[in-house]
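Example 3.2
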Amino acid sequence: MSMQWTDRIRQIKIILVFAAVIIAVASLLVSHFLVRDLSKEERNKMEVWAQALHALNAADEHTDLSLVLRVIEGNNTIPVIVLNDDGEITDYRNIDDTIRIDNYLRRMIQTGDTIRIDSQVICYDESIMLKRLSVWPYVQLGIVLIFVVVAIFALLSSKRAEQNKVWVGLSKETAHQLGTPVSSLMAWVEMLKEEYPNDHLLPEMDKDVKRLQLIAERFSKIGSLPEPVEASMNEVLQHVVEYMDRRTSNQVQILCQFPDHEVIVRMNASLFEWVIENLCKNAVDSMEGKGTITLTLYDELQQIAIEVQDTGKGIKKKYLNSVFMPGFTTKKRGWGLGLSLARRIVEEYHKGHIFVKQSEIGVGTTFRIEMPKS
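Structure, written as tokens:
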């Protein structure tokens, strides 16, 4: 279900990006042809205007100037500067007085928008409408990109909200279902202790029942905001090591590299133990029950860091960005929720960060967790 949803989200993102590219390319092409045609039309208008100006300068008392003046006065959009043979400005139109004429003229000459007639040179620039039309496709492209980003963000938010509901519902229901049998088992263990006080198996049963109680407690906290308290990270990691030592074979060696002093961090200890246990169990599966797990605790200036390193088969590069996604798993059994829940606990409950620091096929994988001290 989760992988299908992920594939659907990926397909929708590809379609949105593809549609945005098509719209942008089509808009740029259409605008390019429109700008080109309008530019040619403005060039023709300026040639007619230049001819009219020449006719005005060459007119005598018998020349009818009504049409010539209408053409000259009809240019209300295209900026134009008229020069004489000496390069001096004799007239200009449609240019803001706040603009430096000499700089504007230099740019006109550089772009080649000039017309020479006899002793006069007419320099002109694109009209405001043509400039706006040239810029518009890029504005449109920006709007399309913003739309695509907002749409993708909305899809991801919807996906994340749905996942959160599934996680919380599953966790609460699991805790509820575990509650009654665990309570019953605790009562039976107490009765067995009274009946067989010297039985050496009952303490181990008691540990397992308490373990089930802890698991139920952890599930009940998913979806809520458990209050973090100051606790020793050294002790938390040591508890995990002791638990894994009892649950793994002698062929799995767990090494610890901790500072000499206690590293105190505000956290929910039971949930954080779950994260480390999950990483260690995945490491054991990756090593196929034989190898070395190294737990390293770093006490840095502004944060603490934990690294879980194994000597397993490693993770392929194409899967590195997917290992924390709900439903992703390379194992034949399992739901693929372990690392996803681990990231939720680290990032949402403890404001930290968990990621794959390094992974090499046939050598092993290192997961790193970083958490602020305060």
